[in-house]
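Q: What does the assembled structure look like for these inputs?
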Amino acid sequence: MIGILRQWLAGLPAYLWGGWGAIASLLLLLAGWEFASQWLDPLALPDPRTVLATLHGLLTDGNAWSELGITGRRALTGFALSLGIGSALGMLAGLSMTASMMARPWVTVLVGTPPIGWLVLAMLWFGASDGTPVFTVFVACFPPIFIGAMQGVRTLDGQLREMAQAFALPPLQRLFDLYLPHVLSYLFPAWITALGVSWKVVVMAELLATADGVGAALAVTRSQLDTAGTLAWIVAVVGALLAVEYLLLEPVKREVERWRTLA
Amino acid sequence: MLNRLLAAPLMLCAFRPLFLLAAGAAVLGMAAWLGFLLLGWPLPGVPGGPVVWHAHELLFGFTFAAIAGFVLTAVPEFVDGPAAPRPAVLALVLLWLGGRVAWSASGVIGPWPAAVLNVAPVLVVIALVAPLLWRDPARRHLSILWALLAWLAVTAGFYTDVLRGEPPMRSLHAAIGVVMVLVVIVMSRISMRVVNSALDTLGETAVSYLARPPRRHLAVACIVLFTLADVLAPGAPVAGWLALAAAAALFNLQGDWHLGRVLLRRWVLMLYAVYVAMALGYALIGVAVLTDLGSVSGGRHLLAIGALGLSIFVVMNIAGRIHTGRELDTRRWIPIAAGVLLLAAVARAAWSWWPADGTLLWLAGGGWGLAFGAFIAHYLPLYWRPRPDGGLGCEGVMDSD
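A:
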């Protein structure tokens, strides 16, 4: 365990240094934005520095942190529920061919129902409480996680399983060395996709259903025709997502998927 | 007379006269500039004034001579082609010298002679290497040709502005960008050999160095975009973001080099320092354009002294030595001179904040002059004499090849 940790820490500086490439391409994006803003009305597209200054103002007067906190709590609650229930049910469905066959149309129904439809249902069921955004996030995140878990289990190498049986591997070792690494390599990308979905959906749900959170703040900037404020909130949400994905999930994902390059 | 001149050891290979002229132009050009700034010496009156004279001489004089010497030596080696014929090299040298005189006299005789004599040598170099680069079956080094054509464009652009009576500084700024691209391209070739042989020396077999093309292409793209923005809309925020993107892309490029203690080997560390100076230079420009911190001029001089000056110094010490049939110089003066050059870059950048402090300028100009003066002192005796191994041209150390 300590060995893995040390290895992970040793690779960390190189990983973080690799972030410069991402920073370079984001800065190119900002240059493109700046270029476009020169040709458009500031009301349609303010330049990036104005937006960043607005965001800086929101962050220093403390407003942004509380709104981001509220939004983050809702997104992560919905995401965590999806992660737990979706992964468990997906893996269970993957264990049996019949269950997988039966579950597929259900997932298609879930994917096919637009999130906005779920949102309206949630508003009817939960009103203006936290339940509305949390439920919408849960439903939107569920299908990719469920499918990931199901496919992870379905694609387990049957020969490896037989070999584990032949060598009479203890069940715990079988779980940690055989099943989990394989299933996780399917689950992790699904979780990351779902995390992105959760952030997008929670803001949409808040915009229509709640009085606080980033979505509600966006509703206010929209009504005031405050494009700079709107973009500032968007930058805040995207920035938070990038930070979580690249600083937390991506390093873990690399660690989990390392066996693929070794194999 | 002419035949004796062509047969002289100094003409054995193109880099011999050109590297010496480059170092000479570096020392003399900087001495005249320091004299003008600090001692009130007069400078030749030229279109655009003293700053344009300074930038022109260090870019189209010093830098071009070094680039010409390098490509005429390296390209035949890269593509396994014949070296440039000596009469052509002699013509190039004479044109280059004429260009120096004509530019400094352009206040008196007009800009046309300077235009012809500064553009012509670029054409000669392109005419000499383009067929080799093009005929190479894999065309792996065509990017060098594009960079030379870009250099031709900035030289011609400069004189177009001068002849039309417009401020010509933007072409000189663009010239720095072209050199940065060329440095990134050339260093990717040189570093593969330098870093991997340093790894061999250390006995490290577990890692090997690879100059990864995607990282290099991203850095080149960012530098090109910044250079274009800097020419078309100098000082605009777009240029600022692009400068920051170039800085980040160059930091990204440094990731290739993080292979442990091999980074501390002298040739590796000096080449790495070129990228550090380049990244910091672009960062300083970007910050200066977008905020009221930073300094555009300070950033440009980090590029010009720290990246351009140091890379030329290092490359002249590598290519300019092994192609005389000698192993690399292991003496201490080289890392010391490189350190002095970096110090000069920092001092010149700092001068942008404290323009009243003449000491910083002395440090900057003096450090530059010392480094290239030391090059002349160490290499003139080598270039003046025939090769010790009996070689008759540009080939590298004979027994190792």
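The mean pLDDT of chain A is 85.
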